[in-house]
Amino acid sequence: MFTLEQIKQAYDKVKTETDFTIYINELIALGIKGYDSMVADGRVVYYSNTDYEVSTDKKYDLLAIAPTANKERFIEYLVMHEGGQSDYFTFCEQAAQCGIYKWRIDITEMTCTYITKDGDALIIEKIN
Question: Would you list the domain boundaries of the chain?
Fold first, then answer.
């Protein structure tokens, strides 16, 4: 079973895009299938194929998640964030305003899925 300390050690090595691939391979070696970033409080929940999971502590005060998703506006915020025009917390605030409950990184499929409170996949991106 993996621990938060093992995950942190792997993450601390990431300095460039190339390092991200190494990080993903280390997570796979630890038995991690993916992780969920919870928009409401910033927790990250890492999970395995065997239903084992570990969670970080919350990172900020609770954000209210909009009850209705606004896909078009979220895409605008996502493009801005991916272009370096917002920091992580601002992006989380924007995601909450657009009804995003969490995003799931599936390291087996190499996808990032943005999910609503109802569990609907709003956007699925391929991770390069």
Answer: 4-55+62-126
**Is-contact 34 107, C-beta < 8 A?**
yes
Which CATH superfamily is 4-55+62-126 part of?
A: YdfO-like (3.30.1810.10)
Phi, psi of 24 (to 5 degrees): -60, -45
Instruction: Find the DSSP H helices in the chain.
Output: 4-11, 17-30, 71-82, 88-97
Q: Is pTM beyond 0.85 here?
A: yes
Q: What is the pLDDT of residues 111-124, one digit of tens each?
A: 999 999 999 999 99
Percent of the chain at pLDDT above 90? 84
Token couple for 63 = 């954000």
